[in-house]
Amino acid sequence: IRNRGAGALVQVSGVGDDSEALRSVLLLWRRRSLHSRAGAALTHGEPVYRNMEDSSNIRSLSPEEVEKCMSSMQTGTQMVKLRGGSKGLVRYFYLDEHKSCIRWRPSRKNERAKISIDSIREVCEGKQSEIFQRYADGSFDPNCCFSIYYGEHMESLDLVSGTGEEARTWITGLKYLMAGISDEDSLAKRQRTRDQYPFS
């Protein structure tokens, strides 16, 4: 298995039909790939995008789509926070009023139960993280799963939403915020459109 972007090469030999061994190899490749890409982004202080189209797709969102995501995230969503190997915790996650942090409650950390948007390095759809790999297949709907990698050590916050639509809202909204597109940018874009097409 070769990961061209990260320049990594994992030799797969003697695996045969052993699905468990193959899973371990793939997990190793995933870790190397993730940390290699994350290291490059951290050097420049930038978020990690899964492909070149990711950022441009986020930037092409309409103001209405953005507003829907932000409104839903600030209203909050009840999701399961996985801890790996043990029963997950049902928590209420929401985007703060300044759109600068993800917070959740209840938590013994109280006000420290938060992740700043600036610290997020990658948002991954589905059950790709190491934590998700600890749970049996079929435990969760992949469409409802996503992971947030944050901080210098690429810690992961692994979440399971109630519906695929809720997961998509959070994934899209977080990537939009990671792209550094402010409300002022959206307003300026709309004003330019009105100036260019005043009678549309």
What keyword list fits this structure?
200 residues; alpha+beta; seven-stranded antiparallel β-sheet; two-stranded antiparallel sheet; 6 helices
Q: What does this molecule look like?
A:
The chain is an alpha+beta fold and 200 residues long. It is 40% helix and 21% strand. The strands form 2 sheets. It has a 7-stranded antiparallel β-sheet, sandwiched between helices. β5 (101-105) and β6 form a beta hairpin. α3 crosses α5 (164-178).
**Rg of Cα set:** 19 Å
Characterize the quaternary organization of these chains: single chain
What share of residues are in beta strands?
15-25%
Query: Distance between termini?
Result: 52 Å
Would you summarize the structure shown here?
β8 and β9 form a beta hairpin. This protein has helices at 19-44, 52-59, 63-75, 130-133, 164-178, 183-196; strands spanning 2-3, 8-9, 77-81, 89-95, 101-105, 114-116, 120-125, 145-150, 155-160.
